[in-house]
Design a protein that fits this description.
Largest sheet of chain A: 9 strands, mixed
CATH architecture of the largest domain in chain B: Beta Barrel
CATH superfamily of the largest domain in chain A: Thiolase/Chalcone synthase
Largest interface: A-B, 33 and 32 residues
Number of helices of chain A: 14
Radius of gyration of chain A: 19 Å
Strand content of chain B: 35-45%
Helix content of chain A: 25-40%
Number of strands of chain B: 8
Bound molecules: zinc ion
Shape of chain A: globular
CATH architecture of the largest domain in chain A: 3-Layer(aba) Sandwich
Number of domains of chain A: 2
Structural class of chain B: mainly beta
CATH class of the largest domain in chain B: Mainly Beta
Largest sheet of chain B: 5 strands, mixed, barrel
Number of helices of chain B: 2
Structural class of chain A: alpha/beta
Shape of chain B: globular
Order of helices and strands of chain B: HHEEEEEEEE
Strand content of chain A: 15-25%
Oligomer: heterodimer
Helix content of chain B: under 10%
Strand order of the largest sheet of chain B: 4-5-6-8-7
Strand order of the largest sheet of chain A: 3-2-4-7-1-8-11-10-9
CATH topology of the largest domain in chain A: Peroxisomal Thiolase, Chain A, domain 1
Distance between the termini of chain A: 19 Å
Number of strands of chain A: 11
CATH topology of the largest domain in chain B: OB fold (Dihydrolipoamide Acetyltransferase, E2P)
């Protein structure tokens, strides 16, 4: 397989973008990406687009064709990829495989979701859980992660304050990210006193409903060298699936699919958790950040909370996590999230994360997750 | 919910019918056509026990629209006496009476009314023993 480089990035601001239709969000991200890469649109051979459920949010399927048409790329090969909230990570992996295989030299890997378009977001998102055996019984996504939180608290002694500390930290990071939906710092009291969504999770434990698009441009490393611009290489790609029903998993205080995906990515990259300088994890809910950090091998099970409270995972700590603000502060347009995580890592590794730069970062990891842990991707990127 | 989807699930929702793999003995709820453990394709019907205990739970304060009239309600993952796990509501109990380890029993209840063109939707809920 060929070594693959990320040679350009583009993304919209995340937020409630009522004036922007789905197709324009993607077109904007592509235009920014091509400009960043210095590549002309007629060089693009293929696009992979992560999107969870444009059919439910916007009444639009056949997505890859309409989006590439409006992005000025009509005629290229284009495919929409769906793996719930891990759609972006799955699209990145598909694009990486296409370039690595030698089939194409210039491939866009992107993602988009327009969640604010009048549809019932709770319902649309719930289709990522088991319709007949979870959703039928009144289960919501906050409810599923709340049950993981409850199991984690019972097994490891995790507290309500431990969860809140994740939100406070990520908002502190997001306040330094101009593309974040909620670039504002919050206090522990704000999180603890917010309206309860599903015990023990409150409103500030949950990522928001967001619109946005993000895309990166992939090419072989030799092509990246010829272009003479900063780039990062894809050192490891891991992807795994699991049952989408939470009750079918043996340990409810863990999310095993993340560990499975991480093991594949670490093995391919030839690195371990100790080699990673900066991390983006899928903090769709505060508990998810703690569990994912444990599954990725950064901390022993039950230890991520203490590390968070000690500042280890904050900017300036030993392992800065979610420097973008994470899904919590930056926003979570589900299909775009996996790509936006990659973009944050690329910006960190190329020294472009202005105001939130992790000095000297060489290797970064991005972990994207679908549903309550029915799918996950892990990508490891390195700057030479 | 449209009626074909509803009709198909009646044996497991109304009568707790599971599928026991004749090859390896694994009990699947809901029944499957291919055994997750051994790949076998032959099953016999096995009725689930109704008693079990709560493994984890949450009180849903902000529900989907169809469940708004029942809020707040408790959702739980219950492990039944034969080891099968399922997700359900815990009915008729104040939320603070349901916790990890609470013993429950599955009973037949109406789950939601649905929208006016939809079928009434029934199935199992747990009650505290
Ligand atoms: Zn079997």
């Amino acid at each position: 397989m060929r070594e693959v480089a990320v040679i350009g990035t583009g993304m919209t601001k995340f937020g409630e973008l009522w004036d922007s239709p789905l197709r324009d969000l993607y077109a904007e991200a592509v235009a920014d990406c091509l400009k960043d890469a210095g590549v002309k649109r007629d060089q693009i051979q293929s696009a992979w687009i992560g999107c969870m459920t444009s059919g439910l949010f916007n009444g639009q399927e056949h997505l890859a064709s309409i989006l590439t048409d409006y992005a000025g790329l009509s005629g290229i090969a284009a495919t929409r990829v769906e793996s719930a909230c891990a759609s972006g990570g799955a699209a990145f992996r598909a694009g990486w495989l296409e370039v690595a295989s030698g089939a194409s030299d210039f491939v866009l890997a992107g993602g988009v979701e327009k969640m604010n378009d009048g549809a019932d977001a709770t319902y649309c998102l719930s289709t990522a859980a088991d319709q007949e055996y979870e959703v039928y019984h009144g289960v919501t996504f906050p409810g599923l992660y709340a049950m993981i939180a409850k199991a984690h608290m019972h097994k490891h002694g995790t507290t309500r304050e431990d969860l809140a500390a994740v939100a406070v930290k990520n908002h502190k990071h997001g306040a330094r990210n101009p593309r974040a939906q909620f670039p504002t710092e919050i206090t522990m009291d704000t999180v603890l006193n917010a309206v309860t969504v599903s015990t023990p999770l409150g409103l500030f434990d949950c990522s928001p409903v967001s619109d946005g698009a993000a895309t990166v441009l992939l090419a072989p490393v030799e092509v990246a060298e010829d272009l003479g611009r900063p780039y990062v290489t894809v050192k490891g790609s891991g992807h795994a699936t699991d049952s989408i029903a939470l009750h079918d998993r043996s340990d409810l205080a863990s999310i095993p699919v993340v560990k499975k995906a991480a093991e594949k990515a670490y093995a391919m990259a030839g690195v371990g958790p100790k080699d990673i300088d900066v991390v983006e994890v899928h903090d769709c809910f505060t508990i998810a950040e703690l569990v994912c950090l444990e599954e990725l091998g950064f901390f022993e099970p039950g230890q991520a909370a203490a590390a968070t409270k000690a500042g280890t995972t904050a900017l300036g700590g030993d392992l800065p996590v979610n420097t973008s603000g994470g899904l919590k502060s930056k926003g979570h347009p589900v299909g775009a999230t996996g790509i936006a995580q990659i973009i944050e890592i690329v910006e960190q590794l190329t020294g472009r994360a202005e105001g939130r730069q992790v000095e000297g970062a060489k290797i970064g990891l991005a972990q994207n997750m679908g549903g309550s842990g029915g799918s996950s991707t892990v990508h490891i990127l390195e700057v030479s | 919910m449209l009626s074909p989807r509803y009709h198909r699930e009646i044996p497991q929702r109304y009568r707790l019918e599971a599928g026991k793999c004749t090859g390896c003995g694994k009990i699947h709820f809901p029944p499957r056509s291919v055994c997750k453990e051994c790949g076998g394709r032959a099953f016999e019907m096995e009725k689930l026990p109704s008693k079990g205990k709560v493994l984890t739970c949450t009180t849903v304060e902000i529900p989907p629209a169809e469940f708004d009239d029942q809020k707040p309600y408790v959702n739980a993952i219950v492990e039944l006496e034969n080891g099968v796990r399922l997700t359900c509501m815990v009915a008729e109990a104040p939320p603070d009476e349901v916790d990890v380890g609470t013993e429950v029993e599955l009973v037949f209840r109406r789950l939601r009314c649905g929208r006016e063109w939809e079928v009434l939707q029934y199935g199992y809920k747990a009650v505290v023993v």
